[in-house]
Amino acid sequence: MYLRNISISADDKYRECSILGKSVPVDLVKGGRPRKRKENASRPVQKNLNYRNAQKWFRLSAVANFSEGDYTGEFTFAPENRPGSIEECEKEITNFIKRINRARKKKDLPKMKYMGVIEGKTTDKLHFHLLLDNLLNRDEIDDLWTKGRGKNKKSIGFTNIEKIKTQYGIDGVIVKANYLTKEFKLENQRGKRKWFASRNLKKPVVERAQNWKYTDSKIARLLESEQLESQLEKDNPGWELIEFPRKNPETQKDELVKLDIRENEYLGTLIYYRMRRRR
After folding, report:
1. Which residue has the higher pLDDT, 270 or 265?
2. For residue range 13-48, what is the model confidence (pLDDT) as tens digits?
3. Long-range CB contact pairs, 48-55, < 8 A, 24+
4. Closest CA to 89 of 217, 192, 204
5. Whole-angstrom distance between the N-terminal and C-terminal Cα of the chain?
6. Which of 119, 192, 195, 229 has the highest CB neighbour number within 10 Å of its CB?
7. Across-strand partners of 7?
8. Helices (H), 66-162
9. Which residue, among 91, 197, 100, 110, has the nearest Cα to 141 in the 3D structure?
């Protein structure tokens, strides 16, 4: 049986791929079935959406829009400024972003690109993280996490704004995106989404790459001869496989792999892998 090879690309520098049967729904595609050779990934909006799809969309969008040298920031609230609910926290974030965009407009800069997550299991611990571009410097951004003017200007809370950097050979954007999405499963169970993003982001692109190139028998031969990794890199010139974290289905322990191979009684062999442009 022929299999589909689907890749979801982030700005043509990073992609997450899957080899699966034609009856298996494709992540981040309306209805689960791509209708074009290339189409934009659908942004998850449903509260009860599979949290793994939300994690994937967040990670791919982050890679498509941010790079080393852009910023990651944590913003907290001083006791006297603590929001009483997530809705109040969202209002503070909205006003903060408006202040940033007003400052950027004065410098003839476009609206800020950002992605963020609200964290905190209780209201007294609410805070948020941002991925944001670097067109304003860190001091300018820090100075806008304030209320009032002139002598009455006061900080809303603590800020920690850092440049995104590679960590242990792994793209710093991916590392940060993985960290920011760690609570998505819990949010999904509670039915409340706490992540947000600007509307001016580049979208991940779903590609039906090399459709029908693989069959069950060909995959079985490549797995048996331990040549699947080299074959995938050969079939994708200019790209290389990279390690990514997964939970071992047998031991339930975290591990790093280049191929995540799952056997399903009804859907057959499912293979997931990630690639980046060769450097």
Report:
1. 270
2. 999 998 887 665 555 455 445 555 555 555 555 444
3. 48/188, 48/191, 49/188, 50/188, 51/184, 51/185, 51/187, 51/188, 52/27, 53/27, 53/28, 54/181, 54/184, 54/188, 54/193, 54/195, 55/181, 55/184
4. 192
5. 35
6. 195
7. 17, 207
8. 86-106, 138-144
9. 100
